[in-house]
Amino acid sequence: MAVKAQVLYDFTAEPGNNELSVREGETVTVLDQTVGGGWIAAQNSGGQTGLVPEGYIQVIRVSNVSGGEWGEDSWGGGGSYTRNTTEGQNSQGHTNTQQAYDDDDDEWDDNWDDQSVSGYRDSNQVDEEGGASGRLAHGSTMKISLNKFPFSKGPNPEVFLLAKPPTNSRDRLPVYMGEVGAVWLYPSSPVDCVITDPKKESKLYGLKSFIEYQLTPNSTNRPVNHRYKHFDWLYERLLEKFGSALPIPSLPDKQVTGRFEEDFIRSRMERLQAWMSRLCRHPVVSQSDVFQLFLTYRDEKEWKMGKRKAEKDEMVGPMMFSLVEPEGPELDAAEVERRCEQYSRFTKLMDDGVRELLNVGHTHWKRCTGPLPKEYKRIGQAFGNLSTVFNSSKYPGEETLTEALTAAGKTYEEIAQIVAQQPQEDLHFLLETNSEYKSLLGCFPEIIAVHKAAVEKVKEADRLVSAGKINNNDRKCMNQRISCMSYSLQAEMNHFHSNRIYDYNRVMQLYLERQVTFYQQIADKLRAALNQFSTL
Amino acid sequence: MAVKAQVLYDFTAEPGNNELSVREGETVTVLDQTVGGGWIAAQNSGGQTGLVPEGYIQVIRVSNVSGGEWGEDSWGGGGSYTRNTTEGQNSQGHTNTQQAYDDDDDEWDDNWDDQSVSGYRDSNQVDEEGGASGRLAHGSTMKISLNKFPFSKGPNPEVFLLAKPPTNSRDRLPVYMGEVGAVWLYPSSPVDCVITDPKKESKLYGLKSFIEYQLTPNSTNRPVNHRYKHFDWLYERLLEKFGSALPIPSLPDKQVTGRFEEDFIRSRMERLQAWMSRLCRHPVVSQSDVFQLFLTYRDEKEWKMGKRKAEKDEMVGPMMFSLVEPEGPELDAAEVERRCEQYSRFTKLMDDGVRELLNVGHTHWKRCTGPLPKEYKRIGQAFGNLSTVFNSSKYPGEETLTEALTAAGKTYEEIAQIVAQQPQEDLHFLLETNSEYKSLLGCFPEIIAVHKAAVEKVKEADRLVSAGKINNNDRKCMNQRISCMSYSLQAEMNHFHSNRIYDYNRVMQLYLERQVTFYQQIADKLRAALNQFSTL
Q1: What number is the ipTM of this complex?
Q2: What are phi and psi of A14, to 5 degrees?
Q3: Contact (Cβ atoms closer than 8 angstroms) between residue A497 and residue B396
Q4: What pLDDT, on a 0 to 100 scale, did the predictor assign at position A159?
Q5: Does the model's pTM come out above 0.90?
Q6: Contact B457, B161 (CB under 8 A)
Q7: Is B366 assigned to a binding site?
Q8: DSSP letters of B455-479?
Q9: Could you name the CATH architecture of A1-60?
Q10: Residues of chain A contacting B512 with CB distance shorter than 8 Å
Q11: How many helices (H) and strands (E) are present in chain B, helices listed first?
């Protein structure tokens, strides 16, 4: 059966690039998901075929039971939130995809395992001018958009605003008033973990193979093993549970080719480490059951039981706000709105800034690994050639010159190598950090939209009371809840700011340190080459 | 009357570039000599118009007396050599062009004054990939080819080989056997001169203006003034007199636009200085009457008389060889041929090496002044923008980070400027020196061809004796003369080698010194930027 996909954003094909223009809302047929470089081959309803950026479309997972047509209830993992909506507490109602998750580990669909786009380091595939990822302006918010779908378009915010607070106080999320304003409760001993030893494993007598990473948390110091698809499962759970309130950064991109090449494994491990470290630093995420399970499960049995429990968790999506217990005074909807606007402005501006830095960084990367070292090599070779020619002159006493010229030539050839390798030494970390922030910042529009939708609902409270739809107690409850939402957002923004200051301080220092070393190394090499020439 | 030009080399137009394909020997009509960038607008006999590289054609100067048709006797300054050939000692026979030179200074055609292509520094006009000068593979040998024309295609080498030695021994050119082989007699006090104070002068009540340079030779320490066209006149004289035996470097290129702009004047003066310094260092050229006249004339009268005398000089072209007095034993034609081959190989190889260095240098120049600093500026601005965004966060205590980020941004913007200016600081001199050597090396094929033609003639000596065309004394004389030619070439090659070693040693040191300073400066700036970040 042909795989269909829903177009999420308008995309205009570049002439002569074998691309296909698509419009938001259009349904296309997926022809090939393995073309690589962030592209998918697709056919529109008019029969035209071409490449579309994979982030611009969402493959429709068709339930075998309900038939081939795409419908509201066939949206992916995000559908789980519907369990907790007005549609009823139907714990059996999760979708086909989730059913698969519940099955034995070996039954997971291996097609989506370990496949990712390598990101900017594969300069052949990714190009800020023409490649797919450069155009994925909304790439990082995609999954969240889908998961928020039931909230934004489905059930009303009142579901949360009027829901009963949970009875289990163990999950409560206190918000304190610190020096910088509202802050989460930070754990006394912060969680951390180290990812090491990627191992190629296989199953089905070697027919299927995958990479298993070893994670060692500082709490137990006992290593656990996880495959990429386990990380992806954790990501889905965190997104489902916290995505309405906290930015959950995307996992490292998918890569289609070279999944067992050393570079790719090293690069993925480095990115998984960065992803885990960021989550470990988050006071809410790192303390959650699902995250603790991922890091500290003792055996397969505990892991599988924990998985099932996490997948049945009902405190997901905006319900999280009902756990927030702020220390500060109650805020009204207008104040919440004002803060939302302020955070929205900031995250939008920072998103622009991060994108610009990523753009110029990618351009610079290409120059430093392409034309620039080629030029230094040619300069070096030109000096070397001249030296060879001079050597053939048979004119006596020019050995000092020819030897110095040869050395100068070799120096420029060495500089070419240094220049070509340098981005991996410095620009790499600057771009990695900014990519992480691009991913985080991509989550905020949705988080802020959730708040805005709640504010709009609270504005209607008077009318709802008049119409007899809610009573004054409900109205009071709504006001109290929206205040909680605002404190949650403030605490999260302050967490974001404090991490941002730490991260940018660290990455800028690293970048500048290595840039200094780079230029100093070249200066020293050239000084040595200079000293080979005879003083006149 | 339409200006006609003879096409010297095949030129194939690039499609879409408004160029005109022409074939060697074709006559075209010159439409516009002022288009600039080394191009001339021309029309072929079929009526097609387009641009042709100015070095590929030779404007035909039609004598008003002899009528409009182009003929052998209408070739330019080089025709003067015919005075000393089998066509007779007709001292009245110099061409129309020379007649003009003999007239009052103001009568010189101002159209060719002060017009030159600015060379590689004008990156808009000159481009090693597409521009006119990049394609002028034979550009520097052009004038010599024309001047050698009477020798190569006109009178036989026997004109020199059998001519009587001159009676005036004052002009004799001794060749000694030094440590490195044959060497010219070097003057005990080397000539040098300094060019300063370019002044814009005008005549015809300001209708015509020009730049006058002040030259101060070390011999008299008395400044003399010269316009560019005087330098051009000197170049023509030296080429005529010495071009068969010594490489006479071309004058700085013609430039059509901006002849009074400061940069152009500074650049031309610098190049005229380099040109004069090189000639001053040459023991034969610097001691010649015409060169001494140029540097030391006392007044207008002495200058004009000297000019007339120089233009009537009969010891020009291959006749120079008859002045050579070698110290070493007589060489035979086979030995001369062997040495010719050796020098030909070397100069060809070095010409290739120099061209390659110029090519990569021009490419590097463009990158360093174009995309690279733009990228550093963008990186700097991206840091600066992030700092501005961070500043708007209202999160307390991040001044250290935002100030350091701003400083880092400014540092990269400064680096952008340093990078853009750097080629002028270092690459400039490397390219200038290599351009000079390209010009010198371009003279050797002709010099070597003169020797080869003489060798061929001497090989015929037996047959000529049998045919009664020459006697045994003539044959002996020929052998003696070709030996002189070889010593002259050896002395010149040794002069070339010794200068080459000096020049490349000097220019490579200068280049590397300034490259070290450049990289060190950037390392230091970045270190200062790094220190603004707080240690974590």
Answers
A1: 0.74
A2: -85, 130
A3: no
A4: 60
A5: no
A6: yes
A7: no
A8: HHHHHTHHHHHHTTSS-HHHHHHHH
A9: Roll (2.30)
A10: 408, 526-527, 529-530, 533
A11: 16, 11
Residue B91 DSSP label: T
> Which of these, B270, B203, B258, lies nearest to B436 by C-alpha position?
B270
**List of residues 6+ apart from A382 with CB closer than 8 A:** A409, B353, B356, B357, B360, B361
Chain A CB contacts of B341 under 8 Å are none
Is B227 annotated as a binding-site member? yes
pLDDT band at A33 (very low <50, low <70, confident <90, very high): confident
Question: Do A356 and B385 make contact, defined as CB atoms within 8 angstroms?
Answer: yes
Residue B454 and residue B432: Cα distance in Å, rounded?
34
Residue whose C-alpha is closest to residue B20's, from B56, B49, B58: B49
Task: Give Dmax (Cα) for chain B.
Answer: 108
Task: Give the start-to-end residue ranges of the domains of chain A.
Answer: 1-60
CB contact under 8 A, A526 and B506: no
pLDDT above 90: residue A406: yes
CATH T-level assignment (fold) for domain B158-356+431-513 = PX Domain (3.30.1520)
Pick from B375, B385, B523: CB nearest A520: B523
Q: Give which of A436, A438, A278, A432 is closest to A348, Cα–Cα.
A: A438
CB pair distance less than 8 Å for B509 and A530: yes
Could you list the beta-strand ranges (E) of B204-345. Answer: 208-217, 224-227, 324-326
- Please give the Cα distance from A467 to A459 (Å, whole number): 14
The answer to whether B57 touches B22, Cβ cutoff 8 Å, is yes
Over its C-alpha atoms, chain A yields an Rg (Å, rounded) of 28
Q: Where are the alpha helices (DSSP H) in A80-119?
A: 96-102
Q: Which residues in chain B are contacts of A365 at CB distance < 8 A?
A: none
Q: Which residues of B494-525 are buried (b: 16+ CB within 10 A; e: fewer)?
A: bbbbbbbbebbbebbbbbbebbbbbbbbbbeb
Closest chain B CA to residue A363: B375
Which residues make Cβ contacts (< 8 Å) with residue B221, sequence separation at least 6? none
Cα–Cα distance list, B462 to A383, B338, B454 (Å): 48, 20, 14
Closest CA–CA distance from residue A189 to any residue of chain B (Å): 20
- Interstrand relation of B173-178 and B324-326 (parallel, antiparallel or unpaired): parallel
Between the two ends of chain B, the Cα-to-Cα distance in Å is 81
Eight-class DSSP state of B16 = T
pLDDT category of residue A479 using cuts at 50, 70 and 90:
confident
A229 annotated as ligand-binding: yes
- Domain spanning B3-152: CATH superfamily: SH3 Domains (2.30.30.40)
Q: Which residues pair with A50 in a beta bridge?
A: A42
Per DSSP bridges, beta strands B224-227 and B193-203 are: unpaired
Question: Which of A362, A383, A392, A534 to probe by mutation at the B interface, max B CB count within 10 Å?
Answer: A383
Residue of B390, B403, B425, B427 to mutate when probing chain A, most A C-beta within 10 A: B390
